[in-house]
Write a structure and sequence with these properties.
Layout lengths: L1 H29 L6 H8 L3 H4 L6 H24 L8 H17 L1 H13 L4 H29 L7 H21 L4 H19 L4
Length: 208
């Protein structure tokens, strides 16, 4: 009996994952408004009515999808740059930051989520809020706190950490957008990211 229950739960989770993966693919391609529940069900390999056994509708699918992506992003983004460990030098900062940018640019799930938010931000208030949070606010806050701590530790020149966070992150965000529009320029864009980070480190770095 216990084995049967575990198998049933596994099947439910598997179906939910298929639905969420199908939804992300369609949202990234057609936008949130352009993908119907029936389209999501078909892409997941189930019938429309069966989808409602797992989700009440498209809004709930979006909620579950955002939660899944948030958890995935937190685990993998942090691992990419050893988040939580304060860089002891500007060289460490650039290595950590480049690892995060490289992950953000190339990870398939993050790419699709970025396209979803880009397409939906002008039509859906919820997606607009999420685009602002993930594309601006969270990054700004992370680097602002990091720079303030580095200034206190003496590895970075004293300045306004909020302004420097914008100065550091804004060009990177622009370059990621350029990559999204033309992935064939990957190597060129990575060189520009590294050059920008080196210039920032040379300008604001302070030898301990």
């Amino acid at each position: 009996m216990a084995v049967e229950m575990k198998e049933e739960q596994s099947t439910i989770h598997s179906t939910k994952d298929r639905i969420l993966n199908a939804a992300l693919d369609l949202f990234a391609e057609k936008g949130y408004e352009g993908a119907s529940v029936d389209m999501i069900a078909a892409a997941a390999g189930i019938k429309g009515p069966s989808l409602y056994k797992h989700f009440k509708g498209k809004d709930q699918i979006l909620d579950a999808l955002i939660t899944k992506v948030d958890e995935y992003y937190a685990a993998n983004f942090n691992a990419a740059g050893n988040q939580g460990q304060l860089p002891e030098s500007m060289e460490q900062l650039t290595r950590m930051a480049f690892a995060k940018v490289n992950f953000t640019m190339h990870d398939e799930m993050i790419q699709k989520t970025r396209r979803l938010l880009t397409l939906g931000q002008f039509r859906n208030p919820r997606l607009s809020e999420l685009a602002t949070l993930h594309g601006i606010t969270a990054i700004q806050t992370m680097f602002q706190k990091m720079f303030a701590a580095m200034m206190k530790a003496g590895s970075m020149k004293n300045d306004d950490p909020a302004i420097l966070a914008m100065e550091f992150a804004a060009p990177v965000s622009l370059l990621i957008q350029m990559y999204d529009r033309d992935p064939s320029k990957d190597k060129e864009i990575q060189k520009l990211v590294k050059a920008h980070m080196k210039h920032f480190a040379d300008t604001y770095g302070k030898k301990v």
